[in-house]
Amino acid sequence: MPEQETIIIHETKNGFIFKYRGCRIIHVEFGNILWQFEPEDFKNFRAFIDNLEIKKLEKLNHKILNRRKVFIQMKNSRQKLVFHVDEVLELRKLLSGFGSKNGDDDFQPLNFLADLQNNKIPEQYSSVPYSKN
Question: Residue 63 and residue 65: Cα distance in Å, rounded?
């Protein structure tokens, strides 16, 4: 099968955002989770994560047995994603585009949604070949 170019949009210690050239789907890998979004769904998910009141949720859930105190109910499912507060903070950082692959916090927020919707990949994003074996 031919190699497909993968565009790495952003990375943090535990996750990265990527897409395949010519495809609209935005892939977000974080820990052991892989989400796949249309650009508008990505925008909505990013806003949802940004608006989580994590300190309030942590306080509300402090007496429950679970070690992770921030719960995200999956739509149309009985499954929940659970996070430590620091994991949510890193996920926010990943989704907002702050920080570079080398951990440089001076990196500016990425405005990549418009680029992705138009299939324009600025040169600052890295790309690597990917082969589905």
Answer: 7
Give pLDDT tens digits for 8-67.
888 999 999 999 988 889 999 999 999 999 988 898 889 889 988 888 877 877 777 777
**Residues written for the chain:** 133
Whole-Å CA distances, 90 to 50, 98, 107, 116, 122: 11, 10, 15, 22, 24
Contact 5, 20 (CB under 8 A): yes
* CB contact at 8 A, 17 and 67: no
Is residue 10 exposed (0-12), middle (13-18) or buried (19+ Cβ within 10 Å)? Answer: buried
Residue 40 burial (10 A CB sphere; 0-12, 13-18, 19+): exposed
Cα dihedral across residues 41, 46, 47, 48: positive or negative? positive
d(CA 16, CA 126): 12
